[in-house]
Amino acid sequence: MTVVIGFEGSANKIGIGIVRDGEVLSNPRRTYITPPGQGFLPSETAKHHRGVILTVLQEALDEAGLKPADIDCVAYTKGPGMGAPLVTVALVARTVAQLWGKPLVAVNHCIGHIEMGRLITGAMNPTVLYVSGGNTQVIAYSERRYRIFGETIDIAVGNCLDRFARVLKISNDPSPGYNIEQMAKKGKQYVELPYTVKGMDVSFSGILSYIEEVAHKMLSSRQCTAEDLCFSLQETVFSMLVEITERAMAHCGSQEVLIVGGVGCNLRLQEMMGVMCEERGGRLFATDERFCIDNGAMIAQAGWEMFRVGQTTELADSWITQRYTFTILLQSTHRYRTDEVEVTWRD
């Protein structure tokens, strides 16, 4: 039996999980939460991660009932993500691997989400909607690659929601997206907002700029409530995501949709996607916040898949790559896109 420990810290969450042959043994996590109206800076986020990572590591071992000698491999998030937090976690993972005498595996953050979703839901070969604070992609597997069929051409959907939350000074505890979701349930009036789908791609910068400009004017004049704006923003951006996902399903001849990433635990998004799948005779797969939100177990699971087919990372190659380009037209030698990873563990 193969046991892999995974270290994740690409954004404001630090998580360490342990997986043994498809079974999640432990998955503790901490979140860096800033005051309402503020985002999280890389340096401050890294400082938070440094302060708690050894505690989380001990929790992971204790919860799993394992000792370092029981671990077969150490996996960590190589990227993409925020540079300083990524470096903090990678350094600890590298150190642990050397101290314990274990092989190291560098994991793509996006691949980690996909493999965790496949493990937990049992989805066989789904069209994947990956939605988080830093990424928005529609993905399908083909010939040893996770192919990107559509994506955001500017900001991610999670970033759009987070920045809107700052406009209204919505609390970041436990997350701005979760609090927007709760407020949206009380919304009664739909406010028309820009809807931007370009083929298989989406754009969220326009809708964000528009709602940032009109929000306080509409609220002060009582044209709508904050709850109405939350409701309207969710309905609009989620409709865009459902549209491009359905188009990808049709193109691939797929009957399964898997939603992964932090925004994927939004129940309204799951409901809208579920209706679309049902109308097509398909099936929706989704998870809750334990596995949708960034966590260490997802890195451990992807690392387990890689390790069992002989993939490991030499110490000299165990750097991080924070850069992610939204479009293939923006060339960079340091990017780390989902479709650049060779998926050697699938047929």
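The record above closes out task 2.4. Task 2.5 opens with a second protein, given below.
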Amino acid sequence: MQSLTRLLSNCTLTLQPQQRGAVSAALQQLRTKTKYVEKPKPGAGQQFRRIVHFPDQYTVEPLKITHLAGRDPVTGRMVAKGIGGGIKQQYRWIKWVRDGPRQGAPQEERVVELLRDGCRTAKVALVAVGDELKYILATENMKEGDILKTSRVIPRIPVRPNEGDAYPLGALPVGTRIHCLEKNPGQLCHLIHAAGTFGTILRKFDDKVVVQLPSKREFAFDRICMATVGRLSNIEHNKEPVGSAQRMREMGNRPRSGLWKRKEGKHGRKIRRLPPMTTITPPPAAKEQEIKLTLNL
């Protein structure tokens, strides 16, 4: 660019008419060249549909939402296509940690109300624990007035749980349907949240419990990882027809171009062998800081 400006400063003295046309063409190319902007890629836990404004302390009041419509909140550029419109929804803060006593009798919780949340597919249950209210995901047969039990005790004989109870994986019998599963002990229960889904406890070995997720993949979790018993509510969600283009717009989806078509025949679904069981390992421990002590005499 510096050489081009130096050339332009002397163009009245040295450039011929034919060369002036080449310089003007180069300037035109520079003028129309677009600036490269690196946009964020959707995925990796980042959705560009809405921003939920969480307060400092947990609350059961509906939270305020900022709709993004597929745009980056910083630059305003379109990142995720196909998102836009939709009916305004109220976001209810789910308390993902089901914490109970580590010894003695389990903690009892009462279901106060069942309601629909437009920001998630499964129903939401308002639960009372002492003088505290919180939201959890509702199970298939949960009703108002049910008593739920939560405990972190792993007895010698597996317990007989009911729907909505929360226990460690090591306390549940083989064949139990579960959801809201911890990936590592102490983390949030961020596995198996979609409507009508569930995981199944297949077997136990050493201090691990093998669970089959809704994707049919098998993972070995630590026996002290918490899980909620039962299948999630709204089991007919995947069979509910959209019905019209207006309904699709109300759901927050922009219209497609109409040129996309699913391939048929030999390009259809391939039946492949499932991957082997994966063992969930704990995250690496933080590196200890080296402390140097000196003695001044």
